[in-house]
């Protein structure tokens, strides 16, 4: 590589995803996937789409999926954009909506992809501190900015900001796009999609990866004013005129339409989460109230790093962040009841 290019790429610090080790079979509580399979209707739809039509390009506008999502959210399809996971949508949204002149605001403890995209597109950012309990304070977002990202619930802290507080941020920033990243909103939070008719500056980003058990299909969606959707389309079409493949479109439509299965799996995950929290508290764990499919926990007597290692040796993967403010915490995805019972029994053994 030429010196110019190697220096340029070396200055990029990519996002580091949760590990996917292959050395043995782990109980995987480290990447917030669903412990349950996708709806049988999704598998059937993908199988039936695996036919000779695969020789044809897919619909570049994904109209059928956008119609299904529009019906689900009570919007029209010109309010909907879909992409290969919400990460891809965020990757399009940053250059589409954020101004290089002023910093993008997001919380100091949050999803580490936000600074990665900022750097990639030559933008700047300013982090806004969350309070001691990791709450996002809406009033702090009244300052000059070039755009705002609010993850809700936040990752990895699980903290949820009520929609009324989001309205404070939207009202204070009418000239800037506020992205609300709702990757985990289906586990007890209320979506800010209801703000769309009132605020042309909100873009709500969601995903099928978590609550619809489809991390492997890579489907995300964004909802907002048609002008924002048009902005996303312009960026997308500058890279690739086709969005999702035929199998992903078929599977995603089936997932959105199978409301009963979605309700059942999210209800089970929330019940397991709340039960796990009740068992962990008497063991001395401090646990941030969670409206996500994961919990954020710390123990006063054990370093998070050593807990992480001891769990891994015993076949359980969780997420440890070697970062300021959160290096005493572990992020633990909610598995099945059996997996969480095993997790708790191993923790009991480690704690003695
Ligand atoms: N936003 C947040 C806050 C996340 O934690 C994740 C998952 N790592 C994503 C977006 C991206 O999810 P996906 O690309 O699978 O839709």
UniProtKB/TrEMBL annotation:
<dbReference type="InterPro" id="IPR015421">
    <property type="entry name" value="PyrdxlP-dep_Trfase_major"/>
</dbReference>
<keyword id="KW-0368">Histidine biosynthesis</keyword>
<dbReference type="InterPro" id="IPR050106">
    <property type="entry name" value="HistidinolP_aminotransfase"/>
</dbReference>
<keyword id="KW-0032">Aminotransferase</keyword>
<dbReference type="GO" id="GO:0004400">
    <property type="term" value="F:histidinol-phosphate transaminase activity"/>
</dbReference>
<dbReference type="Pfam" id="PF00155">
    <property type="entry name" value="Aminotran_1_2"/>
</dbReference>
<dbReference type="InterPro" id="IPR004839">
    <property type="entry name" value="Aminotransferase_I/II_large"/>
</dbReference>
<dbReference type="InterPro" id="IPR001917">
    <property type="entry name" value="Aminotrans_II_pyridoxalP_BS"/>
</dbReference>
<dbReference type="InterPro" id="IPR015422">
    <property type="entry name" value="PyrdxlP-dep_Trfase_small"/>
</dbReference>
<keyword id="KW-0808">Transferase</keyword>
<protein>
    <recommendedName>
        <fullName>Histidinol-phosphate aminotransferase</fullName>
        <ecNumber>2.6.1.9</ecNumber>
    </recommendedName>
</protein>
<feature type="modified residue" description="N6-(pyridoxal phosphate)lysine">
    <location>
        <position position="210"/>
    </location>
</feature>
<comment type="similarity">
    <text>Belongs to the class-II pyridoxal-phosphate-dependent aminotransferase family. Histidinol-phosphate aminotransferase subfamily.</text>
</comment>
<dbReference type="InterPro" id="IPR005861">
    <property type="entry name" value="HisP_aminotrans"/>
</dbReference>
<comment type="pathway">
    <text>Amino-acid biosynthesis; L-histidine biosynthesis; L-histidine from 5-phospho-alpha-D-ribose 1-diphosphate: step 7/9.</text>
</comment>
<comment type="subunit">
    <text>Homodimer.</text>
</comment>
<keyword id="KW-0028">Amino-acid biosynthesis</keyword>
<dbReference type="InterPro" id="IPR015424">
    <property type="entry name" value="PyrdxlP-dep_Trfase"/>
</dbReference>
<feature type="domain" description="Aminotransferase class I/classII large">
    <location>
        <begin position="26"/>
        <end position="346"/>
    </location>
</feature>
<keyword id="KW-0663">Pyridoxal phosphate</keyword>
């Amino acid at each position: 590589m030429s010196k110019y290019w190697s220096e340029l790429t070396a200055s990029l610090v990519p996002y580091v995803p949760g590990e996917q080790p292959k050395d043995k079979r782990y109980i995987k509580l480290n990447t917030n996937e669903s412990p349950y399979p996708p709806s049988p209707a999704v598998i059937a739809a993908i199988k039936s789409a695996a036919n000779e039509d695969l020789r044809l390009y897919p619909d570049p506008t994904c109209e059928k999926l956008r119609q299904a999502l529009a019906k689900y959210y009570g919007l029209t399809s010109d309010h909907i954009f879909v992409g290969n996971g919400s990460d891809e949508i965020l990757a399009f949204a940053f250059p589409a909506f954020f101004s290089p002149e002023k910093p993008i605001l997001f919380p100091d403890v949050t999803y580490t992809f936000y600074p990665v995209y900022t750097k990639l597109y030559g933008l700047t950012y300013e982090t806004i501190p969350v309070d001691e309990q990791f709450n996002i304070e809406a009033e702090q977002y009244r300052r000059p900015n070039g755009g705002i990202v609010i993850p809700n619930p936040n990752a990895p802290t699980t903290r949820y900001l009520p929609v009324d507080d989001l309205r404070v941020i939207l009202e204070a920033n009418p000239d800037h796009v506020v992205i609300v990243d709702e990757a985990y909103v289906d586990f007890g939070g209320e979506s800010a999609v209801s703000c769309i008719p009132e605020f042309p500056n909100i873009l709500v980003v969601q995903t099928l990866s978590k609550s619809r058990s489809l991390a492997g299909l890579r489907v995300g969606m964004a909802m907002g004013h048609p002008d924002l959707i048009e902005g996303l389309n312009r960026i997308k079409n500058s890279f690739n005129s086709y969005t999702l493949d035929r199998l992903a479109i078929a599977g995603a439509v089936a997932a959105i339409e199978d409301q009963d299965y979605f309700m059942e799996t999210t209800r089970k995950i929330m019940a397991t989460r709340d039960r796990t929290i009740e068992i962990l508290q008497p063991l001395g764990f401090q646990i941030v109230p969670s409206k996500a499919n994961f919990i954020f926990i710390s123990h006063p007597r054990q370093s998070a790093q050593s807990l992480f290692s001891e769990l891994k040796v015993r076949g359980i993967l969780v997420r440890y962040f070697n970062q300021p403010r959160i290096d005493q915490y572990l992020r633990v995805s909610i598995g099945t009841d059996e997996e969480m019972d095993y997790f708790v029994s191993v923790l009991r053994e480690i704690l003695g």
